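pinned: reference chain
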Amino acid sequence: MAAGSGVAAESCVGQVVLPGDVLLLPAHPEEDGERLRLGAGAAPRGRLLCGPGLRRCAGGLLVTKCGLLRHRPAGGGAAGGAYWVDSQQKRYVPVKGDHVIGIVTAKAGDVFKLDVGGSEQASLSYLAFEGATKRNRPNVQVGDLIYGQFLVANKDMEPEMVCIDSSGRSSGMGIIGQDGFLFKVSLGLIRNMLSPNKSNILCLLLLILSPKEGKLCF
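pinned: its C-alpha cells
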C-alpha cells in the first residue's frame, strides 16, 4: 500500500500493514480526538478505539509500525471495537483502557509510582481505589503488585492508572495478595492468550497455576 493512499480498514484485518499506510474508516460528525465513532447502520452506534501501532489522522488511522492489523468487535452487537497492529516488540507501550499489573516502586506524596514495563513509570493516586478516602487510605507498600487499568496513556503525558471502573467499583482490580506467581512473558504471547478466537495450552496451564481469584500475573 503506498503511503498517503487509503484503503478500508476492514479489508486489511489479518494482513501485514506498513508504516505510512492510511486505513479509512466511516466518518461520523460527532467524532472527537480520543475516539472515532462509526456511523450506525442496522447495528447501534459504537466507539472505535485506536490501539498500539496506529495513530489518528484526518482520513482515519495512520499505521506507525509494521505488523498484522487486528480488530476486536465491540460487545453487544454494536458497531466499533478496537484496531491495533500486532507485532513483535520487547517494550510495552501503555494504551488507554489496557488492564495491566504494575509493581509499586515508590510513594510520592499522595501518588504511587508503578513499573508497568514501559519506558516510564505510571502514577496511581490513593483515591483511585474503591472506597478510598483521605481517612481511609489503601495499605499499599513498595513491592506490592497492583492490577488496574490505564486512565491516561499518550506520548505527551505520564501514564495514569486507576483501580476502579466507570461506576466506582473495583471489578477485581486492586492489590494482588501474596499467593500466586508473577510470570514475565513476551507481549505476543499475552495478546495470543487474550484473543477470544484462539486457545492455548499454556493459557490453560497458567490458569491452573494462578491464584484462587483467577488473576494471571505476568
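why pinned: The radius of gyration is 19 Å. The first strand starts at residue 6 and ends at 8.
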